[in-house]
Design goal:
It catalyses: 2 6,7-dimethyl-8-(1-D-ribityl)lumazine + H(+) = 5-amino-6-(D-ribitylamino)uracil + riboflavin. Keywords: Repeat, Riboflavin biosynthesis, Transferase. It holds the Pfam family Lum_binding. By secondary structure, the chain is mainly beta. The protein is built from four helices and twelve strands; from the N terminus they run βββββαββββββαβαα. It has helices spanning 64-69, 161-166, 184-193, 207-212, and strands at residues 8-17, 22-27, 40-43, 46-53, 57-62, 80-85, 104-114, 117-123, 137-140, 143-150, 154-159, 177-182. It starts with 7 loop residues before the first strand and ends in a 5-residue tail after the last helix. The mean pLDDT is 90.
Amino acid sequence: MFTGIVEEIGRIASVKRGKNAMQLSISCTTVLSDVHIGDSISVNGVCLTVAQFTEHQFMADVMPETYKATNLHQLRTGSPVNLERAMAANGRFGGHFVSGHVDGTGEIIAVKPMENAIYFDIKIAPAFLKYLMPKGSVTVDGTSLTVFDVTDSGFTISLIPVTQDDSIIGRKHVGDFVNIECDMLAKYIERLFTTDKGNTASGGLTMDTLAASGFLD
């Protein structure tokens, strides 16, 4: 579990590629301070497992499903990446609930500087739009951000100066792809009401059962 608050920007030290998989070595500092084999670290919003580590790097494997569903396959030696360790139980919760399980990628279709902010319009698959709402939360390349607008093809986010400096999103351009994780709470609520085929869940929550219990007028 993560919060979407990036701890540091690391660099890809090396990439070993297979046909639909890869092994990444990532140079960093902060996230290595208490690292152990098997720890989870978010890399551009993707939860990866530490397989090996040294004083200055850690290595993680990217399996075929992750390779196909995220933008990690676009990484090259020297690419900057957002890094965050799994949240500590005694830490502040600065962002929102982030699983590190990316729903898919989005394409940046507009970048608009405005005063001290930068607005990004991001196009996503229509299936994800139902999980977004203005002032709601979304994770973009591992960064917890507020949704400022939702259209019929995507959404808009705005980066304040500290986010521009502390994450890689401020360096993105039109045409770049970013990892998108929608708010997991919205997905859990949907799952309570529907089956895998989108039908009303038998024996689960329905509008009728909520009304009968006094939750709806």
